[in-house]
């Protein structure tokens, strides 16, 4: 069910500078062309003592009070040597954090090797967390799929199915009930971790919904800002299918189904669509049931366990039904 093609993403250094309000100390000649290609950021630690094995030059480097204090313990010649070695690796940029001023050796090396030098008052550890979140989002593998993403009782439901089956109308009913729309028609999926998948709408159609016979509506303007989310976690895939009499549907929920996107495996349920079925209510129950399963309670398996126990004890099916319905 995976659609589209994956590709490598980069983020411009100037975008990072703008989003995190970093101040320019020295601007390299290629500043506007520098791109960051990894979500990992680092502080020079072992490099300060000359260990450059496994060094990843493409990482943004952060310099804080600890690095400054260590540099102060060195002789002037050694200080210059240590700083020169770091900048000679042609890192994307060095960011001075926690109100640390540029030491003469640092500024000289930045100019010598033409590497951008930045400054912020933000604590070093805090900036590491902020940059990591930004870069993880911007550089994560992504995939655009046809579907609708809604958040129901805190569970992200990705609705997929044939065009015209009623995904948007179902999402609209859920929004009217107080749930949240994340994306309609096209959902941009991003893998944020080993088993974490987020979804959002492409900027061009964000918060817009297409309703056949009505046209485009702006859900945020019609229902208010509380009815939409810019991004949401994907927890459960819901496949909508037209009801057919010759198809056997799982009535107890004992069969676990899964779908994989971007290497992330997600649980999936199939909901048959037929006139008269209250699909909004069904999806609300599906969201609650999925949360119960995550907490370790599976109603179908509990039912089967009780059934097997009743049969093994010799009580028979009728006694089991009476006991289960109490």
Globular, elongated, flat, extended or rod-shaped: what is the shape? elongated
**Count of DSSP helices?**
10
Strand content: 25-35%
Q: Catalogue the unreliable spans.
A: 1-5
- Our Rg estimate from Cα atoms comes to 27 Å
| Secondary-structure element order, N to C | EHEEEEHHEHEHEEEHEEEEEHEEEEHHH
Q: What strand order characterises the main sheet?
A: 11-9-10-17-19-18
Structure characterization notes:
- The protein has 326 residues and is of the alpha/beta class.
- 33% of the residues lie in helices and 27% in strands.
- It contains 10 helices and 19 strands.
- α9 crosses α10.
- The longest helix is centred in the middle third of the chain and has 16 residues, at 124-139.
- The two termini are 42 Å apart.
- The model is unreliable at 1-5 (pLDDT under 50).
Describe the structure concisely for a colleague:
The chain is of the alpha/beta class. The chain has helices at residues 13-19, 65-72, 76-87, 104-113, 124-139, 167-176, 219-223, 279-294, 299-312, 316-324; strands at residues 11-12, 23-26, 35-36, 41-42, 60-63, 93-96, 116-119, 142-146, 148-152, 155-161, 180-183, 186-193, 196-200, 208-211, 215-218, 231-233, 236-242, 257-261, 264-273. 33% of the residues lie in helices and 27% in strands.
Give the tags.
326 residues, elongated, alpha/beta, 5-stranded mixed beta sheet, single chain
Produce the secondary structure layout.
Elements lengths: L10 E2 H7 L3 E4 L8 E2 L4 E2 L17 E4 L1 H8 L3 H12 L5 E4 L7 H10 L2 E4 L4 H16 L2 E5 L1 E5 L2 E7 L5 H10 L3 E4 L2 E8 L2 E5 L7 E4 L3 E4 H5 L7 E3 L2 E7 L14 E5 L2 E10 L5 H16 L4 H14 L3 H9 L2
Parallel strand pairs: 4-5, 5-6, 6-7, 10-17, 17-19
Antiparallel strand pairs: 1-3, 2-7, 8-12, 9-10, 9-11, 12-13, 13-16, 14-15, 18-19
Helix pairs in contact: 3-4, 9-10
């Amino acid at each position: 069910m995976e659609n589209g093609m994956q590709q490598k993403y980069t983020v411009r250094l100037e975008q990072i500078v703008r989003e995190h309000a970093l101040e320019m100390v020295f601007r390299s000649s290629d500043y506007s062309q520098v791109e960051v290609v990894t979500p990992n950021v680092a502080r020079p630690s072992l490099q300060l003592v000359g260990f450059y094995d496994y060094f990843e030059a493409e990482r943004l480097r952060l310099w804080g009070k600890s690095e400054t204090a260590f540099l102060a313990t060195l002789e002037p010649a050694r200080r210059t040597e240590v700083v020169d070695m770091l900048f000679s690796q042609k890192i994307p940029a060095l960011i001075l954090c926690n109100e640390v001023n540029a030491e003469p050796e640092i500024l000289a090396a930045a100019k010598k090797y033409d590497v951008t030098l930045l400054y912020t008052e933000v604590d070093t550890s805090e900036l590491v967390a902020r940059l990591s979140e930004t870069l993880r989002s911007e550089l994560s593998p992504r995939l655009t799929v046809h579907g609708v993403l809604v958040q129901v009782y805190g569970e992200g439901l990705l609705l997929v199915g044939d065009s015209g089956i009623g995904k948007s109308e179902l999402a609209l009913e859920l929004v009217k009930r107080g749930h949240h729309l994340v994306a309609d028609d096209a959902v941009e999926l991003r893998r944020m971790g080993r088993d974490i998948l987020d979804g959002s709408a492409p900027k061009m159609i964000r918060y817009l919904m297409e309703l056949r016979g009505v046209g485009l509506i702006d859900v945020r303007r019609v229902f208010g800002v509380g009815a939409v989310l810019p991004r949401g976690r994907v927890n459960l895939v819901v496949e909508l299918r037209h009801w057919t009499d010759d198809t056997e549907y799982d009535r107890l929920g004992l069969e676990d189904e899964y779908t994989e996107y971007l290497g992330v495996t997600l649980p999936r349920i199939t909901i048959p669509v037929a006139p008269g079925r209250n699909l909004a209510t069904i999806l609300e129950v599906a969201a609650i049931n999925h949360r119960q399963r995550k907490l370790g309670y599976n109603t179908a398996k509990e039912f089967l366990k009780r059934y097997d126990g009743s049969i093994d004890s010799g009580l028979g099916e009728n006694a089991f039904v009476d006991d289960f319905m109490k």
